[in-house]
Predict the 3D structure of the following.
Amino acid sequence: MPAPAAALAWWWAPLLPLVLIAVAWSVVVVDAAADARAAGRPGGFTAPARELARLLVGQRRRTVAADPVLGRAGPVVLVVAAVLAAVVIPLGTRPVADLGVGVVWFNAMEVLAWAAVWMAGWGPNSVLSLVGGYRFVAQGLAYELPHMFAIITAAVGAQSLRVGDIVAAQQGLWFVVIMPVAFVVFLVSAAAMAFWAPFDAPVAGDLAGGAAGELSGVDRLLFLGGRWLMLTAAAAMAVPLFLGGGAGPLLPAWAWVLVKTLAVLAVLVWARRRFPTIRMDRWTEISWMVLVPLTIAQALVVSIVVLTRGDL
Amino acid sequence: MDVVFWVLALAAVMFGFGVFRLNSMAQVTFSLLASFLAVAGLVVLLGLGYLGVVIVLMMVIEMVIMAVFMIMYMMNPAGLMPMAMYHNKPGAMTISVGTFVLLAAGILLVDWPQRTGTPAPDPTFALGRSLMGEQMLTTMTLGITLFATIVATVVLSTGRGRYDRLGGDLDADTSDDPLGGGVGR
């Protein structure tokens, strides 16, 4: 196994949020254009910029007996969690922080979304937004178990929790070929952790916006922006875990990471329009009765392959 | 390093104290979570990266679920009315401050022995080796005990068992459920 790649220079740390925002923004623009096309309007490419300006100057909505501490912390935590989760993703060959327990770190940061969405739903003292917050916790319980088995399968395949080692282990064959079930489950849970349709019940229209319903101005910008950043970080994590990281012909490693991330995001944006919202009680049964056994079987197969190869 | 230690240590104590000072169940829960996260940072400072990050992972999930249950079992369910987390304030204060002073005095006064061993080159690997090697019996006992507890708790607390769902002879074609699940049983 090759020596693990070192981390990027320290000044990449402040650049990472900007990179993440740039990738997310490009997808937001495409998504807005698709929205406009679906509605029969021309263009739509400038809609995100106008919405950004509107939210930046917008007033905070005040509700009776609100909990401003938790309500404002929620959206901030969502943004911070997405950026912190992204520090272990190799932007090319090297990540911003080359942690020995990178996979667990990603999992721990991404799970902060549970607290973030619940706090944002709790804050305004509004029934519908509180129901949205509770919906996300229920959804989290559904998606988290198969998600953990999926990412740990990639770590088992590489026999390392370091994301760089997982990329190195895919030099011969991408993990998406060896562990397709884990890859699909990871994509599904990436959508679910960003409460992205078909898992958008926590912010769905039947709750008048749910957890995001009472948010306005900067709070709303941070919450919806944090959701996009979380989706981008999760999609980018699929690249080193299952899609061979920066491996590819002609282009440099960073370009391949970007291309693959955008491809994964394209699938998620497509899935959002293709599938209707699924209720979290239905999804819990599918997740626990079907996906958990499938991912455990996948992990077992990968473990046996690793053992028979005699690498350990 | 020293600065990080003191910041995390102070944060852990302050947020821990916040559990007694704040008067909203939700804020109390997340104050306790912040205290745990500071402790996780201290564990990472000890060089135990895996344990520290797993503490973050487990505590976030656990405290969010705790918040749901704590608010559910409270006397004012929304928890937005002011409330106190403590009963018997003087007694609780005496016990907690006394315990803190006792432990702190112990840390400062005990004549700690010199370290003789050396840390493993990869603590995560050493931990896995230990759990799957000489500590296997402990791990399995713990795992089965926890699992049996979960099963027993669910069996004792569930209002509807399989006989309610599938009939006395368990031979109904479709189960009688208030809400249909996603698998279509």
